[in-house]
Description:
By secondary structure, the chain is of the alpha/beta class. The protein contains 7 helices and 17 strands. The protein has 2 domains: 3-113 and 232-302, FAD/NAD(P)-binding domain, CATH 3.50.50; 130-226, FAD/NAD(P)-binding domain (3-Layer(bba) Sandwich). Helix content is 26%, strand content 25%. Strands 1, 2, 5, 6, 7, 8 and 17 form a 7-stranded mixed sheet that branches. A 5-stranded parallel sheet has the order 9-16-10-11-12, covered by helices on one side. A 3-stranded antiparallel sheet has the order 13-14-15, with no helix packed on it. Helix 1 packs parallel to helix 2 (58-71) and helix 1 packs parallel to helix 7.
Amino acid sequence: MSDAVDVLIMGAGPAGLQAAVHAVRKKASVVVVGRPERSAIYRAHVENYLCVDGITDGHEMIEVAIAQATRFGAQLIEEDVLHVEAEEEGGFLVRTEGKRFHALSIIIAIGTSKKKLRVPGENELAGKGVSYCVDCDCNFYRKAKVVVVGNESAAVDGAITLTKYASEVTLICKDLVVSDAMHQRLAESSVVVKQDAWVKEIVGDTAVTSVVLDDDSILEVDGVFIELGSKGPMELATAIGVELDMETFSYINTNKKMETNISGVYAAGDIAGQPFQMAKAVGEGCVAGWEAANYVKKLKRERGE
Length: 305
Ligand SMILES: Cc1cc2nc3c(=O)[nH]c(=O)nc-3n(C[C@H](O)[C@H](O)[C@H](O)COP(=O)(O)OP(=O)(O)OC[C@H]3O[C@@H](n4cnc5c(N)ncnc54)[C@H](O)[C@@H]3O)c2cc1C
């Protein structure tokens, strides 16, 4: 069962929340999926945002933005999006940690995340057993022993996915930040969970052979999946054919209406490229929310709804 919504916004930072305000005020039903405390601005001190003179705490700004967006009628789901797919009858199926939505339009405002573990061996063995994308590389690890490193939804979802391919999957985490539904899925899976552990070195010559943990124990493995943060543009956007920038594959290409190459899909904020500034995120969020609501209105008119 999935809930129907006009505009589903991925990301509860300045871009996503501003998009929500503009879309919901144009009478679209709006769901925002994301964790506000994971927004880049949450721990920042801001002094260059227009109309806010003096230094302001980012988390206070985000809390006001949430109150504003929800007061106008947007619904906030404090989870991550794990999967998006285009549906045959039009629109998109969006799966979060614990819910499913059918959305007529989606706005991707998931910011950028640093995904490197920054340990010895990581750079040298990238592509030789070190991977940053379970969805892209799981097939290469059939019957292999793998570890997944991370504390958030991408790591848990990735580890569960890998159990369909690898012979042994170990999740190495310090402090899991996922919903109860994801904890439940993890408990029901065959993933071996190593809590309070972290990888301090990846070992191998031409391919990964083991990882050294921070208590100096050694795990012999064929693959290391570094899944820090939540699902990124590579997994979410490319699954529905959204084009990324050809240089770094980190940002989503948009036009001035914040439209991507896929009809009904918009992107805004840091995920749409530099400069990484709140003013840009908010401006793009405004445009994306506005355009997505117009898109839905037109779609419904054409369908005679
Ligand atoms: C230390 C620091 C200081 C800064 N100082 C300033 C400043 O002074 N002035 C300024 O203008 N800018 C500043 N910035 C930059 C500013 O924070 C960003 O440009 C801005 O937050 C971008 O907004 P965004 O909405 O695009 O992304 P973010 O604010 O990063 O929000 C991303 C959102 O996406 C969510 N998300 C991620 N993955 C998923 C997923 N799979 N499913 C659902 N949701 C997901 C996250 O949970 C989060 O809610 C600073 C940044 C940092 C790190």
